[in-house]
Automatic annotation (TrEMBL):
Organism: Sphingobacterium olei
Superkingdom per UniProt: Bacteria
Name of the protein in question: ArsR family transcriptional regulator
Length: 169
């Protein structure tokens, strides 16, 4: 659905990366490796998104770090659009209602890489989590979102690609 509006797959991956959770950051080579794209394709999209004001860049040591510009007038609208596309807002709201002491919620797998595979993989870390409740919630969410929802409760070394959706302060 969103891919018909945003035809560049690289741009869509970058928007998901930076707008699913506003504190996500990235640099050129890291993003190229994460998305399995050429640095030229990533650079082109980063420059266009930065020139339009959607991303900000800052120099840190020898790297240029990119992050969503939360002061842009369309920031909230873009973030809502990306989260609606991922179907994450409803899922997260339900999780926090009854799930226990959640430390972090991350999107992993295909959607974290910007691939709409139909399977949302979510890693939930915390203390005293009600895993039975969360599993039932994942099943209900699957029906509502018309996507498969898989939950993980331990940080896996296999989940190299992740987008933090929530982190307890």
């Amino acid at each position: 659905m969103l891919e018909t509006l945003i035809t560049s797959k690289t741009r869509l991956k970058l928007l998901i990366k930076f707008f699913a959770y506003a504190t996500n950051k990235g640099y050129l080579r890291g993003l190229a490796e994460e998305f399995h794209e050429s640095t030229n394709a990533i650079r082109k999209e980063l420059n266009q998104l930065t020139d339009a004001g959607y991303l900000i860049r800052e120099q840190q040591d020898n790297k240029v770090i990119y992050q969503a510009n939360n002061k842009h007038p369309l920031f909230n609208s873009l973030q809502r659009l990306i989260r609606d596309y991922l179907g994450m807002d409803d899922l997260i709201d339900n999780i926090f209602a009854k799930a226990g002491d959640i430390e972090q919620v991350s999107l992993i797998g295909d959607y974290a890489r910007g691939v709409d595979s139909g399977t949302l993989e979510v890693c939930i870390l915390g203390n005293d989590l009600d895993t039975d409740y969360l599993s039932r919630l994942a099943n209900k969410s699957s029906e509502l979102l018309k996507k498969s929802v898989k939950l993980y409760f331990e940080k896996s070394p296999a989940s190299v690609h992740h987008i933090i959706l929530f982190k307890k302060k």
